[in-house]
Amino acid sequence: MPLCHQPVNLISRAKHYAISKKMSEVISAENRMIQFLTRTLQNTRTMSEVAPVEGNVLQMLTRTLSNKSNFASNLFSVCKPFKEQIYEDLKRQAQETGQLFEDPEFPASDSSLFYSGNSQLPGTVEWKRPKEIHENPKLFVDGACSCDVIQGMLGNCWFVAACSSLAQEKELWNKVIPESEEQEWNDEHPENYVGIFHFRFWLFDGWYDIVIDDRLPTIDGQLIYIKSRDKNEFWGALLEKAYAKVAGSYESLDGGNLCDALIDFTGGVAETFQLQEEKYYENEEKKIQLFRTMRSEIENHSLLSCAISAASQEEMEARTEVGLVKGHAYGITAVKKVYIGETSLMSLFAQKEKIYMIRMRNPWGQKEWTGPFSDGSEEWEKISASERERIGLTFEEDGEFWMTFDDFCKYFTDMSICRLVNTSWFSFNKTWNEAVFQGKWTTGPKNSETDRSGGCYNHKDTFLQNPQYRFDVEADDDIVMVFLMQRDRRALRSKGIQHLVIGFHVMRVEANRRYRLHAIKEKAAGSEYAMSRNVFCHCKLKAGRYVIIPTTFAPTEEGEFLLRIFTSKANNGKELLHDVPTQSMWPCVSYPCLLTKVFVKGATGLEKQDRFGSADPYCIVKCEGERVRSPVCRETLDPEWNLTALFYRKHSDSLIKVQVWNSNVVMDTCLGKASVDAPLNPETILKEIELFGQQGQEAADQKPGIVFIEITTVDDLMTF
């Protein structure tokens, strides 16, 4: 019986069950806390129906509930076995049989080397285990550092640069290379070695554990792909093999994308800056802001890299006049302010001159920068010995070098940041609230639920047929990050299948929208469209509700995608599945017959509420039991709310009710109320309505202020 197909050890299964049972107990406790918070939030909202509760209370409860839910769902996120191969079981089977592990899912054959069947290697490939390459193999020699790995005969400098970045962050490579001490060759216990290793990558929908054997491709006894500066160190070569297994072959790693590897190593989100297109070198303000961003991201353990794009295949690997290589990915290892001159007690009280500098590494380990501040250049004489020691300056032919930030913006064309987004509420650093959706672009009968591949905004007739997702932004100018990822298609290259051209479009919608959009609205944000695995957008949005539409560029293209939305506060993210309200199962419950869109622009001349003659007003719009609240406008008697709401009405004579309140610390104060009818009329009607007190619309109870409102009522529920 083949080694890999032997029966799974029952003890192992029992252990897995026990661990899972303990996980379930912990998560059940978290779920009980979530239920308590949910009841508290519902009770608070019920109280606010009588007299609105200060918004901060609701926000705090909502945010806490969101964080607890996120914690419960992610605390014990399981690392799934890739291709159903469980490392512990396979290793135990190999130990019991005394046979070195051979991976049937990624055999030592040409099919693992090439998907095209064409070898351009200068010799015959032999697959050798590390002990056949070096008498004293090690996974790590003196730990991992950014200068360990060197590119081989494969055009995957992007992957090597990602390895260099990974090696700088111990917590990350402990995640990617788990149990490194247990996996290490142990001279005292040679029986532990059975030729099996495992690594972990984040692949589309979570972390996966990838098992490999340690047979590596060689020519004349030398590794042909990634190797280490220490000839007996093999973590880079084995990691590359695991990544090639995921991609389908080593050849599939030729000419990849650095951002892809960084995301797979971290589960983070990647953003690329076009340095030349955006003219950072010429814009001092943008340059300084970029420096601050990069320095902050380095401090937050993000992974950074850069490259000089090649205009043609002939330019690939070409060296520029300053020693940089086109088409190569360079890992960024430091971003610092460097002070010029001697450090002394007097200089602490003087304005010292400083320059912005950046440290990089070429994954080849050679061909370094030859411009100002290159290794051994005269510019370093201006930097004191103590300052050089502070920044860790060395002059070695290790591919690592420094340059000024000005030169960096001048010569490099692209810079990428892979952010490790913090969604844990157990943190003093900035935390994000994440909404995650897995979806598909599918084709089906026109206007059916399976007709979900309408193409980009250019195809206006079908654009809204794409999947739609809503999310909320609580505060004006809040930072929002959106990350769209399609399922990796590298393993399908042998069939001629490439990545789709993808992107997304964001529109601001009505504050209470619960159903799919049927009319295109003004664009609020969006991504560029690219034939890449991932696209990203980092933007500021005003408070309100938004709908994001992920699309392929062309209609009728099919594929899977992952959408991740990050906001500073709870975003109430949800997929919009239905076009209109669903029919009730009870025949006595009537169905909406009208759809009314209400736009409350603002108010003027409201009643003063403080000794400064001002107020903090907001409005509430009600209809048939549904209510929508605007944000608070601070210190004004003439607020502009720009609140839009939709009401699906079952009764044609139901009124639209508007209330204006002043936001207070404890109990909010009513500034006035009004009601207005909304008969069927597809034309937008502008009304100026006066405010009244609790007694209703009587002259004796009139309050200061006028509210400006627009109303549109239609009988087609799929109008807006």
UniProtKB/TrEMBL annotation:
Superkingdom of the source species: Eukaryota
Annotated active site: 157, 328, 362
GO process terms (BP): proteolysis
SMART domains: C2, calpain_III, CysPc
A GO CC annotation given for this chain: cytoplasm
Domain called Calpain catalytic: residue spans: 100-421
Record domain C2: where: 577-693
Coiled coil residues, start to end: none
Keywords tagged on the record: Hydrolase, Protease, Thiol protease
One Pfam family cited in the UniProt record for this chain: Peptidase_C2
Single Gene Ontology MF annotation: calcium-dependent cysteine-type endopeptidase activity
Family: Belongs to the peptidase C2 family.
Protein name from the UniProt record: Calpain-5
Record organism: Caerostris darwini
